[in-house]
Amino acid sequence: MKGLILVGFMGTGKTVVGRELASRLKWDMLDTDDLIITRAGKSISRIFSEDGEPVFRVMETGMLEALMTDNMAPRVISTGGGIVLAENNWSLLRNLGWVICLTADPEVIRQRVGTAVDRPLLAGTPEEVRGRIYKLLQERQEAYAKADWLCDTNQRTPAEIADQILARFNMEGSINV
Ligand code: S3P
């Protein structure tokens, strides 16, 4: 059975939907940002400020490679919003499972990320954050569209989104109650 890999822009709900899926399937859930923080021993913001974004991107690829070799049971993996940018990450993502991209409108994203910390790409004044969301979404649109399936999360609860994903990949039969 293939795992479920959640990609998508910051604030599209990858972590919360991932937890919902993992709890229904009784699968493990991993988050590449959390794994990187543990491995590096520092926050994402510190990695960006002390080492730079390119180093963080190398860490992301390294994490996908490490996940490829640990040969575990199927699991849910939520990823950082920029993991789709490196072309060579795609074969790794696809090997780990179905790649599902969660999407949301820019204004919905803006509201969801409003109070979040540790997102260096969305630091700044509300106007700066708004501008950056629109710009990055546009720049990344093509990369997100490479996913096996795009799932709209506007106006939907994590439970509803999980229902849709499980139905789309015929996984209802795998739910352990
Ligand atoms: C990033 C998204 C973040 C984190 C880092 C960079 C991005 O993860 O990986 O701040 O480039 O979109 P979330 O999408 O989980 O916020």
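^ shikimate-3-phosphate complex. The longest helix spans residues 126-144. The chain is about 50% helix and 15% strand.
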